[in-house]
């Protein structure tokens, strides 16, 4: 069972002094019995009604007591020296409150892939870098508790919640790259089906819009950079719908791209071409542009009252 292997990878850490908080997000399988069968006093198990990954992580943040915090999804594994190496680097570099590592995708057929090249792994103030691309996952990082005070995952998001979390928290301090260790992410058929989907793309562009226009992103990102990046993403989604013959979605998305970069002739050309698609062959004739994201949502106060251990 994935969750048992994930837990065991933490319990085998060379660093021994930690608490392992396991949040059961309303599972209907034997997760509870599996966790409770592991005899280790460092494990703290909490069951809650299903609310999604962000809700589960937020509850973990509420229950934490340690100086440092690391997340681990059930399909991820920690190498034996992971926590020791990451915390050692943070202790040696006190100006940094977050350390992140590489991560390696392991596929069902045994193939491995280091998703991002070394050019993406840098240290410092990374908000501008993260606005363009976030080459990390929540499991591949360790946080000092001070940077997490009052900070939570956005429970409005069903996809790209990691990216949103990284982007927003990057404004709170400098971030340290630790290339010596790598989290193992086991890519399952379910996670494969979610990668690169339209849902994740539209979530990401809405995250960028909210960050720039509502969350003071303009203090970190120039107007030109923001409009260029957001326009590119809308055009990318518009072209995909154009290729699928979805006239209405393509038109609306090209219009959004044009609104950000009105001088870009490629965007106008794409919009004109979309108008000539057959309405009769549109597979999504009722498609609507998703509404802007509201302010980040967390239900941690109510969650704490509705959990069992």
UniProtKB/TrEMBL annotation:
InterPro entries: Glyco_trans_2-like, Nucleotide-diphossugar_trans, TPR-like_helical_dom_sf, TPR_rpt. GO terms for molecular function: hexosyltransferase activity. Pfam families: Glycos_transf_2 (PF00535). Gene3D superfamilies: Spore Coat Polysaccharide Biosynthesis Protein SpsA, Chain A (3.90.550.10). PROSITE patterns: TPR (PS50005). CDD domains: Glyco_tranf_GTA_type. Residues 3-102 form the Glycosyltransferase 2-like domain. This is Glycosyltransferase 2-like domain-containing protein. The lineage of its organism: unclassified sequences, metagenomes, ecological metagenomes.
């Amino acid at each position: 069972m994935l969750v048992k292997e994930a837990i065991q990878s933490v319990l085998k850490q060379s660093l021994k002094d930690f608490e392992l908080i396991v949040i059961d997000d309303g599972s209907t399988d034997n997760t509870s019995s599996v966790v409770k069968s592991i005899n280790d006093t460092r494990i703290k198990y909490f069951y809650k009604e299903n609310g999604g990954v962000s809700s589960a992580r937020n509850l973990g943040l509420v229950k934490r007591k340690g100086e440092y915090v690391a997340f681990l999804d059930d399909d991820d594994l920690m190498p034996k020296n992971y926590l020791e190496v990451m915390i050692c680097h943070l202790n040696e570099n006190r100006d940094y409150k977050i350390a992140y590592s590489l991560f390696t995708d392991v596929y069902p057929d045994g193939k491995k892939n280091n998703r991002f090249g070394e050019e993406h792994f840098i240290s410092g103030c990374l908000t501008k870098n993260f606005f363009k691309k976030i080459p990390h996952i929540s499991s591949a990082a360790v946080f000092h508790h001070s940077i997490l005070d009052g900070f939570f995952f956005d429970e409005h998001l069903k996809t790209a919640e990691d990216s949103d979390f990284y982007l927003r928290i990057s404004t709170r301090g400098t971030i340290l790259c630790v290339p010596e260790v790598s989290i193992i992410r086991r890519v399952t058929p379910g996670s494969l089906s979610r990668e690169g989907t339209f849902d994740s793309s539209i979530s990401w562009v809405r995250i960028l819009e909210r960050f720039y226009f509502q969350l003071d992103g303009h203090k970190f990102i120039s107007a030109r950079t923001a409009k260029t990046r957001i326009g590119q993403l809308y055009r990318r989604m518009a072209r995909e719908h154009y290729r699928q013959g979805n006239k209405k979605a393509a038109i609306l998305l090209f219009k959004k791209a044009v609104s950000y970069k009105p001088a870009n002739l490629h965007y106008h050309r794409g919009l004109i071409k979309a108008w000539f698609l057959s309405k009769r062959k549109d597979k999504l004739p009722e498609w609507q542009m998703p509404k802007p994201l509201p302010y980040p949502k967390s239900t941690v106060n109510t969650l704490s009252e509705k959990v069992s251990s």
